[in-house]
Amino acid sequence: MLSLPLQTLSTAQDTDASEQRFNWQKETNDLTLIIDRYGARGGLQLMKLCQGSQVRQTIEIERLINQGNHITRLSEERGVQVQPDHLHISAIVRCPLLAIKWQVANDKIRRIQMRFKSDKDFDTAFSHLLHLGLYMGGQKAVPSQPSRSATSKEIELPPLPQPTVISKTARGKQPMQQPPRTPNQDQYIPARAKTSPHGGIENQSPLTSSPISSPLAALNEFVYRHLESDDFLTLVQDMEATWARVVM
Fold it and tell me: For 153-177, what is the mean pLDDT?
């Protein structure tokens, strides 16, 4: 059983299928939509539109849907498409409104329009009728999405640091940037090598004097410490020239 409150219910007088003008009677008080099987033939579901304890309209909705589906299948087997206006029952939806028309005695057409009190109630009725197989045209409104600005905040990322380019001519003139140190790191830093007037390096190589366990780490530390030294640059250039002669 399905029971949903209604805000309004409008009922039109029975007309011929070709009639385009309708006279509507509108009700607004104590309205309820009920779908159940109580009093139905063959246990099929009924749609009841009630005002208080009085049933204003009763629609054999499942029987009418089944009749329309049967005619549609027979027509499709013959290659004929049945138009919605020729079905025994059909509906037009636009949340929170639901309009239904169906055939009654003497080939007349009866029409009702109902407005639900909430979109949730509309969705419940829509899903139930869709499950029964009722043809529904129009548009089922999609719940509006909250705007991005109202539900989230833009996260501004800090700009990336610009790389520092040290030209060859500026070597030895700019202060050397030190890597971050841990509190106990200073005791493991090898002493800066002293350079001789002849361009050599007098102190012992950090590869043997440094307490750093990894030779590669000691080498990296040595290169980093002397990167700004002109004497170190000269040493590198001399080594490149020596390797070039060896290869040749």
Answer: 47
Residue whose structure tokens are 């989230």: 152
Whether 98 and 122 have beta carbons less than 8 Å apart is answered as yes
Three-point CA angle 203, 205, 211, nearest 5°: 110
Q: Do the beta carbons of residue 8 and residue 15 sit within 8 Å?
A: no
Residue 56 confidence (pLDDT) above 80: yes
Q: Residue 15 gets which letter from DSSP?
A: B
The β-bridge relationship of strands 136-139 and 89-94 is: parallel
How many other C-beta atoms are found inside a 10 Å radius of the C-beta of residue 72?
16
Residue closest to 107 by CA, chosen among 240, 29, 210, 14:
14
Task: Quote the pTM value.
Answer: 0.54
Tokens, residue 39: 């009093």
Name the fold adopted by 2-139. PH-domain like (2.30.29)
**Domain extents in the chain:** 2-139, 172-247
- The closest of 8, 10, 18 to 109, measured between CA atoms, is 18
